Amino acid sequence: MSAAPIRVLLVDDEPMIVETIRMILDFETDWVVDTCTRPAEALERLNGEPYDVVVSDFLMPEMDGVEFLGKARERQPHASRILLTGYADKGNAIRSINEVGLYHYLEKPWDNQALLLILRNAAERSRLLREMDETIKRLEASDRRLADLRSRLIREFL
Amino acid sequence: MSGTPDAAWIDRLGEALEDYPDPAHLLDAGGRVRRANGAARAISTLSPEAHVSEHGEAVRCCACDVREALAAGAWRRWHWAAPQGTRDAAAGRYYEVAVWPLVQGVERALLGAVVAWHDVTLPLRLEHHLFSEAEALENTVAERAEEAHRLELRLEALGRDLVALRESQADILRQDRLLTLGQLASSLAHEIHTPLGAILANADLTRRAVARLREPGADRGRALEALDRACAVMNDGGQRIERLVRTLRNFARLDESPVQTVDLHDGLDATIELLGHQLRDRIAVVRDYGDLPLVACRPDAVNQVFLNLLINAAQAIEGHGTITVRTRVDGDYGVVEIEDTGTGIAPDNLARLFEAGFTTKPRGLGTGLGLAICRRIADDHGGTMDADSTLGHGSRFRLRLPLAGAQEVRSR
User: What is the distance between the alpha carbons of residues B355 and B367, in angstroms, rounded to a whole number?
Assistant: First the structure.
């Protein structure tokens, strides 16, 4: 499981922004980084392989970041959601923390060190959630096997 | 008339007086009438012998005056008013009565006297009339002077009011301009924010890559690639900021003369670009530009109209919508239309749209002067400004500027 690379999806209508974040992640990490400039296109991608972190801009032409992240949550609940906001939209970002289960928000212009720290923590959280999910599934499976075994034992002894 | 005047001489004098046009009497030394001329005989009221017991204002005792003149042996003249109610022509008239005693020799022996009656009713009335007129005039002049003083005070007060009014009007105009510029500034700040953020992040990435290159055994290829890409993005970001600044300068025309011949499309493009942030995220801007010749105008003023109309259009749209910017030539006019798919304007409000001070915007968002200023700018250019709207479907604002003859743009 941990061998699979961490996957990040970046959404911002400004190509300059998604490109810059991708470059920083390319330089500092070995993650797989996908970028989209349209939320609709990003939702398509979320129907496919699982992502660990989804980063979205707040102000976008077709759909705002909060709405997009809400839809991302429905598709991939374990992926950590991060909202990128301009100074003026900070209030909206804070309100949406509960609304879409936001992991964090990042104010533009961001500090690369903070960006990396938040994204790393977000990825780790997502991995832990997924591992916990796997463990619970494994436990449930063993539980079912145990129950099965026990019922077979009882049948054989009776 | 040599020798001693005698009774015969007196009689000849009496005859000479006969045809004199004014009434005249010839008296003897005792003051008794010896002869009345023709004019005097026609008016019985005139009598030098008349005694009037009541010495009223206009009534005088002629006999008394005559007696005094004869006693003094010197001529005498007075005014006499004929009593009202007499049956002859003298009734109510004024006479200047003169008496000339006739004396003889060094001993000044009194022979008689001549009394002449000259009707001065007309000059007296005229004089009286002039006097009362003058008096009335004097009163009027005094009243006028007082009124003038009051007006002067009122004028002074009005002057002070006007200064205060002008100041507050200037304040409001300044406030409206600040509001518009504030919206522009916030939009511009947002526009600069993106490339600026990218430049800062890439500067940091550059630092990281250089630090990595200095490490022994570092992945040089990866660091160099990061440097390469960071430089490219920083360059793009810098150019974008440069373009914004140029657009802003183009919009404000800070360094150029007031009236110029310009392509209105440049002003529209610059304004749309500067408002990019307010428009791009939720509003599609459709540019339906026709063939428009260059127009002589004050570009800063015309761009202010574009800015006002575009901000209004954006504010009229709740959520997502479209603004269509259309240009065309209509006769001798260049027409710019800005149409939105916003909430529209109620018919009652439409009529008052261009009134100064009329606004439906919340406090702090509008001074109610934006459109009034737009119309004034259109007027100053010899153009017009109008609007139509359908409630619930959107509005269309139309600016018409004359293509020719705009040389005489009024400057404010």
Answer: 11
